[in-house]
Design brief:
The complex is a heterodimer of chains A (about 60) and B (about 575).
Chain A (H helix, E strand, L loop, with lengths): L2 H24 L10 H20 L8
Helix pairs in contact in A: 1-2
Chain B lengths: L3 E4 L2 E4 L1 H32 L9 H12 L21 H13 L3 H39 L9 H7 L4 H12 L1 H6 L6 H25 L4 H15 L6 H14 L1 H25 L3 H6 L9 H14 L1 H17 L4 H12 L14 H25 L1 H21 L2 E3 L3 H9 L6 E3 L12 E3 L1 E3 L12 H15 L6 E2 L3 H6 L7 H9 L6 H8 L6 E3 L6 H10 E9 L2 E8 L3
Parallel strand pairs in B: 7-8
Antiparallel strand pairs in B: 1-2, 3-6, 4-5, 8-10, 9-10
Classes of the chains: A mainly alpha (about 60), B alpha+beta (about 575).
């Protein structure tokens, strides 16, 4: 796997985590109106993962 | 006195050789000191025949059941209301000792202690192996005509990190407050960490060998899988290391990772199903349902803060090196392991979990730190003696800073108290005994100092603790039945039944997975001549009927806990 592929995987994971955290709301999980504390933590974590993923993209075909 | 000497084409002041040597010597002395302290604590624990940490006796009970060919995964609803929530491997490993010497606490304590020593050696080997690999790279560079500056023999001795860096990394594991606290206890957690570390270190070796030779080493990978299986069947928490190994394999060889993941999962699952069938489903109830505990965010945050404060140097260096590898090198198994183990340490916030959940992250961070320092020294060697002196001064200093942050020491002898005092540490701390079933007691001096703060673990048990344990058994011996006790040690000492595993029972109760009818009936009928409480880890209904049918007759303090000895009312 290359650094670029790893970066794309991170971006995919981060986006999936964001969608998942809101998806849980649709299923009725969570006890807070709007964004709850756990959800906020998950969103921050997902944001960090996406950021790391984006920064890996320029490293192209270097092996991960 | 000569102020400088010739090193190849460089002039080196003598003090620039002496200072790093002294610092390395001091760092080694500090960590050897922690090893001695660890051995003292372990030796005292081996001789103590009662529970030091809540739950030890139940792990001994698991071992006894295995030694009799029985499973500890059983029905909690009926007398003796006992079951275990842990996988079997640690206890099975101790069975031969129980066969030979009987059901003694030292058997499991010794096994866990030896496991930590094996882990420390594995950490040292991982760091040494990297140094040797780098040595090979250096030789290849020299063949190509690239010169190394460290040609001066005394400097080469210390600039070659083959010896002292692996030793510091290995001893660093035993010096961690968390490993010290739990290592010599009859607890299976660090035995799991031993298998995890062996698996990861062996994997690194297998992959390195494969990439060097260009040949697949499937036998080597099979050993890794077996070690992971052993880790998982020692404690469930090993799933994080399993994930790290397969992520690493996937990054290097995606198809092969999948090819190995399938049989690994199948074997793990088949063993699970076999045990579940053999125990009529109690394996699932006792090891899965009973481990669904509430998450306490404050506990997780507090432990994360404490872990970072105690292990700052090795954590920061490991994190920086992992980031470096993420961008500028191939990610090593150690970097992936460190990140996943650290993230998984959040499970320390579960009710019933604790500091030992950081042990895997600590092992990983030590290997990464050792390797990072190896690389820096290797880099410095190519840059010239000035850089070497700088790094050979900074690196041992960092180890000394880390040693200082981990400070812990029993001070029960004049010599240990004098050493603590000479190091500018207090010789005792004031801690109030833990009470749950009796009135609070004032703080009293404890001859144990720990940078982790007030700790109930770490102080070697003493003669007073031994006498207190025996006093409790004498009170139980006045009756004829096994005691309904939160600790198993007293009934073990008297050769009576082990009744209940309270935390397991409480976990099952919280998950609506236990029927209290028989237990409440026996307590109501005063079927037990003695009840012994320490932390009241029983469901409220049980505590309620104990309160109605039993009364406290004696309070005995052991290991900093006040035990309430209760006998039937009206007798």
């Amino acid at each position: 796997m290359t650094k670029k592929q790893l970066g794309l995987s991170f971006i995919f994971l981060g986006v999936a985590a964001i969608l998942g955290s809101f998806g849980l709301d649709l299923l009725g999980a969570g006890q807070f109106q709007g964004v709850g504390p756990t959800q906020r933590l998950a969103l921050i974590g997902a944001g960090v993962i996406i950021f790391v993923g984006v920064t890996l993209l320029p490293f192209g075909d270097n092996p991960a | 006195m000569r102020e400088s000497m010739q090193v190849g084409k460089w002039r080196v002041n003598e003090w620039r050789v002496i200072v790093p040597r002294v610092l390395i010597g001091l760092a080694l002395a500090a960590f050897v000191g922690y090893l001695i302290v660890y051995a003292i604590y372990a030796w005292h624990l081996f001789q103590f025949p009662f529970d030091y940490d809540q739950g030890e006796g139940f792990e001994l009970m698991d071992t006894v059941l295995f030694s009799q060919g029985q499973w500890p995964y059983r029905n909690n609803d009926v007398y003796p209301f006992y079951s275990s929530n842990y996988p079997p491997l640690f206890h099975i490993a101790i069975v031969p000792l129980v066969w030979l010497f009987g059901p003694h606490y030292w058997t499991g304590r010794l096994m866990s202690f030896l496991g930590t020593l094996v882990t420390a050696v594995a950490i040292a080997i991982a760091v040494k192996r990297d140094a040797e690999t780098r040595g090979g790279a250096k030789r290849r560079r020299e063949k190509k005509g690239e010169k190394s500056f460290a040609t001066f023999a005394p400097l080469r001795l210390i600039s070659s990190p083959n010896h002292w860096l692996p030793i510091l990394a290995g001893l660093g594991y035993l010096a961690s407050n968390y490993i010290y606290h739990v290592g010599p206890l009859f607890r299976q957690h660090l035995f799991m960490v031993m298998f995890e570390t062996l698996a990861v270190v062996w994997l690194a070796r297998v992959i390195e060998r494969e990439e060097t030779s260009g040949k697949r080493d499937n036998k080597g990978l099979l050993v890794v899988m077996l070690l992971l299986l052993f880790a998982g069947y020692t404690k469930q928490l090993a799933y994080a290391t399993v994930a790290a190994v397969f992520i690493f394999l996937f990054l290097r060889q995606p198809k092969r990772a999948v090819m190995w993941a399938v049989p690994f999962t199948a074997v793990t699952g088949l063993i699970f199903l076999w045990i579940n069938t053999a125990t009529d489903g109690f394996w699932f109830l006792d090891t899965v349902t009973a481990n669904v505990n509430p998450f306490v965010p404050g506990q997780a945050e507090g432990l994360f803060r404490q872990w970072f404060t105690l292990h700052t140097v090795i954590t920061v260096v490991a994190a920086l090196f992992a980031v470096y590898q993420l961008y500028f090198e191939r990610l090593s198994i150690y970097a992936i392991w460190f990140v996943i183990a650290t993230l998984n340490s959040v499970t320390a916030g579960k009710w019933g979990a604790g500091e030992s959940y950081f042990a895997t992250a600590i092992a990983a961070s030590l290997i990464l730190t050792g390797i990072a320092f190896n690389r820096l020294l290797d880099w410095a060697e190519r840059r010239g003696t000035n850089w070497q002196f700088v790094l050979l001064t900074i690196i041992p200093l960092l180890w000394l800073v880390q040693a200082g942050k981990l400070f812990h020491m029993p001070t029960h002898t004049p010599a240990l108290a004098a050493i603590a005092s000479a190091l500018g540490q207090p010789t005792e701390v004031m801690i109030a005994p833990q009470t749950s079933c009796s009135a609070p007691r004032p703080p009293e001096p404890i001859p144990y100092v720990d940078a982790a703060g007030v700790s109930l673990l770490g102080r070697p048990p003493n003669k007073a603790d031994m006498e207190a344990g025996i006093a409790i058994t004498e009170l139980i011996a006045r009756g004829e039945t096994a005691a309904f006790a939160e600790d198993a040690g007293f009934n073990f000492y008297l050769g009576r039944d082990i009744v209940t595993n309270p935390t397991q029972f409480l976990n099952l109760y919280k998950n609506n997975a236990v029927d209290l009818t028989e237990m409440l009936g026996m307590l109501d009928e005063q079927a037990f001549d003695t009840v012994v409480l320490r932390a009241q880890f029983y469901p409220p209904e049980v505590l309620n009927v104990i309160g109605q049918r039993y009364e406290t007759t004696d309070l005995v303090q052991m290991n900093g806990f006040v035990y309430c000895i209760m006998t039937p009312r009206g007798r």
